[in-house]
């Protein structure tokens, strides 16, 4: 009896193109939020901040 299963060769883990684009868009969005917060809080001595999610949380259902 022969084994007909295919051998799967794993490649080193690297971010997919979509993930890189998503990260870039998220960074641009966060930068825009910070710019808006700065404009709305100026002049003031309060620090500028935006709410953030804990690292690794994407808000997507698992």
List the helices and strands and how they pair.
Layout: H1 17-41
Structure description:
- With 62 residues, this protein is an all-alpha fold.
- The protein is built from 1 helix and no strands.
- The chain starts with 16 loop residues before the first helix and ends in a 21-residue tail after the last helix.
Q: What is shown here, in short?
A:
With 62 residues, the protein is mainly α.
Keywords:
1 helix; rod-shaped; single chain; 62 residues; mainly alpha; 0% strand
- Assess the beta-strand content as a share of residues: under 5%
The shape is: rod-shaped
Q: What ranges have pLDDT less than 50 throughout 5 or more consecutive residues? A: none
Termini separation: 40 Å
Number of strands: 0
Radius of gyration: 21 Å
Main β-sheet: number of strands, strand sense, barrel status?
A: none
- H/E order of the elements? H
Counted by DSSP, the helix tally is 1
Q: Give the structural class.
A: mainly alpha
User: What helical percentage do the residues reach?
Assistant: 40-55%
- Look at the structure and give the mean pLDDT: 75
